[in-house]
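Lab meeting, item 3. Inverse folding demo.
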C-alpha cells in the first residue's frame, strides 16, 4: 500500500501544476474490507488513480461515478457502499441519496461496508487581464487577494505595471482553452482595445468583458462586424464590465468587476 507521504506529495504536485483532481478518503468500514479507514486515493478526471489506494474493484464503480459528479459541480460527496441486503433492509435503492449520503451496492464476497468521502480539488480560477491600465493593475491586486490566479496580458513594455502575476503573456496571444475556469477582462484604456478584443473573440471563457462605455463598445462592434466578425462572437463580451455600484476610481471599478465574477461563479453552485 502506498505510503501516506507519497499521496501527499502527489497532491502537492498536482496543485502546483494547476490540475483538477479528486481525493477519495475511506472514512469508515464495517466488517471485512480491503481498505481501512484513512486510506486515500488521488483520482484524475479520466478515472485514472494517480496515487494511493482505497480498495479493489468493489468500490471503483461508485467512486468513479462520484468523481464525475464532484468535478461537474465542485461539491464533495459521501458515498456509502453496502451489501445489497443491507440496503434492502434500510429501504434504500442503489444510487439513492439521503441526507447528503449517496448509497451504492457492494457485490464483493466480503460483503463489507465502506463510507468514502470524495472531494474535488480544482485549479484556482484564472483572471486574465488584458492591458495595463490603472483599472487592470487594481484588478490584479484585488484578484490575488480573492484567490484568483492572475494572468497579465500586455505588451512587453507594459508588463512592469504588474508587480506580481502568476503568468504573463506578452502581446495578446491567448491560448484557446484553459484547464481552470477563466474570466477575461480587457482594460487597455484605448491602447490596443481592438487588438485585445479581437484576441478574446474565439477563446473559451466563463466571462468576457470590456472596461469601456457602451458607446465605445458599440463603435468597435460595428467596425468588427464590417470586417466580417459575427454577432455570435461579439455577443458574449459585456460592456461595461462589472456591476453598477456607481464606481469612479480604478479600485472601485475593479471591485465591481470582481463582484460580478463572484456572483457568476457562485450562481452555478447555488443552482446545484
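The presenter then showed the designed sequence:
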Amino acid at each position: 500500500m502506498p505510503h501516506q507521504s507519497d499521496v501527499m506529495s502527489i497532491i502537492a504536485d498536482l496543485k502546483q501544476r494547476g490540475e483538477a483532481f479528486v481525493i477519495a478518503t475511506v472514512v469508515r468500514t464495517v466488517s471485512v474490507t480491503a481498505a481501512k479507514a484513512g486510506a486515500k486515493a488521488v483520482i484524475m478526471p479520466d478515472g485514472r488513480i494517480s496515487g494511493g489506494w482505497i480498495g479493489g474493484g468493489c468500490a471503483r464503480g461508485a467512486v468513479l461515478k462520484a468523481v464525475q459528479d464532484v468535478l461537474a459541480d465542485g461539491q464533495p460527496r459521501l458515498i456509502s457502499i453496502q451489501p445489497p441486503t443491507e440496503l434492502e433492509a434500510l429501504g434504500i435503492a442503489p444510487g439513492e441519496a439521503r441526507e447528503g449520503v449517496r448509497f451504492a451496492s457492494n457485490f464483493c464476497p466480503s460483503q463489507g461496508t465502506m463510507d468514502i468521502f470524495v472531494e474535488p480539488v480544482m485549479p484556482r480560477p484564472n483572471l486574465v487581464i488584458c492591458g495595463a491600465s490603472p483599472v487592470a493593475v487594481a484588478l490584479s491586486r484585488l484578484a490575488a487577494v480573492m484567490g484568483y490566479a492572475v494572468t497579465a496580458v500586455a505588451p512587453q513594455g507594459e508588463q512592469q505595471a504588474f508587480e506580481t502575476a502568476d503568468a504573463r503573456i506578452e502581446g495578446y496571444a491567448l491560448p484557446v482553452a484553459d484547464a481552470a475556469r477563466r474570466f477575461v477582462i480587457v482594460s487597455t484604456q484605448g491602447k490596443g482595445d481592438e487588438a485585445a478584443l479581437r484576441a478574446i473573440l474565439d477563446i473559451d471563457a466563463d466571462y468576457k468583458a470590456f472596461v469601456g462605455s457602451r458607446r465605445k463598445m458599440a463603435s468597435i462592434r460595428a467596425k468588427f462586424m464590417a470586417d466580417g466578425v459575427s454577432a455570435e462572437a461579439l455577443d458574449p463580451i459585456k460592456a461595461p464590465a462589472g456591476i453598477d455600484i456607481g464606481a469612479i476610481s480604478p479600485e472601485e471599478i475593479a471591485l465591481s468587476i470582481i463582484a460580478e465574477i463572484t456572483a457568476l461563479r457562485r450562481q452555478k453552485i447555488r443552482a446545484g
